[in-house]
Amino acid sequence: MAFIEQATAERIGLNWVLGKLRPLSPYGKLLKTRMTTAGPGCEEWLAAEWHLVSELLGQQQDLFLDIEMRLEALREIRGTVKRACQGYVLEDIDFFELKRFLDLSRQLAERLEEIQSLPSRLTIPIAAIMVSALAPGGAGEGFYLADSFSACLGNFRDEQRKLKARLSTVRQELQERITLETGKSFNHLGHLRVKKLDPLCKDLENRKDLIVAAEGYAEIEFIVRDNAAMVGLASTISDLEEKIQEEEYKVRAELSKVVVKQRRLLLAACRRIGRIDLLLAKCRLARKTGWCVPELVDQPQLVLEEFVNPEVNSYLAREDRSFQPLSLSLLRSVTVITGANMGGKSVALRSAGLAVAMAQMGLLVPAKACSLSLRDFIYYSQQEESPRQGLSTFGTEIHALAKVLPLRGQKGLYLLDEPARGTNPWEGAALVKSIVIWLMTGDSITLAATHFPGLSQVAGIDHLQVAGLTGLAAKIQEIKAQDLKSLHQLMDYSLVPGKGEIPRDALRVAAFLGLAPEIVENASQELGIAPQEVLDK
Predict the structure, then answer these.
(1) What is the reported pLDDT for 138?
(2) Residue 404 belongs to domain with CATH number
(3) What is the pTM of this model?
(4) 153-162: which pairs have CB atoms within 8 A and are 24 or more residues apart?
(5) Which site in 121, 222, 247, 467 is 20 to 30 Å from 436, CA atoms measured?
(6) Same domain, 32 and 132
């Protein structure tokens, strides 16, 4: 089984967190797509990763901003290196990108030297031979095929420049002579424009040293006709152009060979830049969400102190509310949270899964403290209908559980969010009790939330319950509006030790939100509770 299925990643908020993890360079972005989780046996790597990220968080922000600016300016060069290795001759734009990459890499390497905690294995290698090979192409990030790349190239270009100047002079002299004889001037493009009704137009058409370049409705444009000397010069210039292009191709071919020889250094620089970029992205995420360095333990457990779910907290912040930090201790193989709906049980389950997933992906955990043992997988119970398979909510859930529950012998984390609630309460309660007993054997950790009664008699499991709406009668006087937002203000989402009994918060919620008093009273009597006790508890 994979560490985490896509459905579970979405439910616990891992996809949201990964969406906020944003490397800046193409190398860091690719590395992010290849991120994997570190399971049991990878404790040493994870501890080093957490430590490195926490050390980087202590660096000066100005240094980070400077490094990030250069990371964002980087472009992808691995495709260019690959083409060179396949025998293609690279173009000027390719060498421009390579030169720019080398220059930015050098700047990054210099700034990263200021970070003492960065291990030497992340030092960015500089392909010095490549730098020297591209040096004639100009200072800084720019590049062009300069004459200094080849003696022949410089000679050919010099000779061509002289011949072009000579041809221009000859053409200019011919234009001046024609202007002197006709009184008509050539424009800066070398065109002589005359109206068709001009008496001189016929004479110009008959001149052997002019040809018609363009003809409109009212005007004709002439240019000089190249004489034998000019044709000879143009031919020699054309021959030199071919030689220049051949020599430029040879230069590019030689530079491409240098790229092939330097490929290991270039690709190593790409990998290390990507690694550094992803580390800095982890730092930025930690700054936004809050963080602690997790502690690894040998025994199967998960302990969270004041965990703040970043996804839920972001949602609440849009409504000017904040997330009540969650503290949770899973010290036995099975822990059951009981409580009525709206009590925050689902958020507790998702937060537990998110904390483990973030930690095992090398991210710091948004909590005051976190200790855990590594898990082989995380599973969040599925409760949606599956129309394609023709299954109800209950059928879909049981179909999935039938596959994953036999993996209890692995070091998994089961998050069962009100299992079997899609069937009748009597059979549902019996199924939940049986599932809980089944999961007490093995190396997995199970956190189950339920509002079914009957688990208090099961020995060997821990019971928690949401503090909920205790003391509602005293608090209600402070609340003006009896609506959902006010209810959230009154709710205490803390998890406290319980006995497996189901709190009576459902009646409290109903009474607070204005359900007819007669309905609440009848329900209270059915449960053997005095109606006045509903709000007083």
Answers:
(1) 74
(2) 3.40.50.300
(3) 0.83
(4) 153/244, 153/247, 153/248, 153/251, 156/240, 156/243, 156/244, 156/247, 157/244, 159/240, 160/237, 160/240, 160/241, 160/244
(5) 467
(6) yes
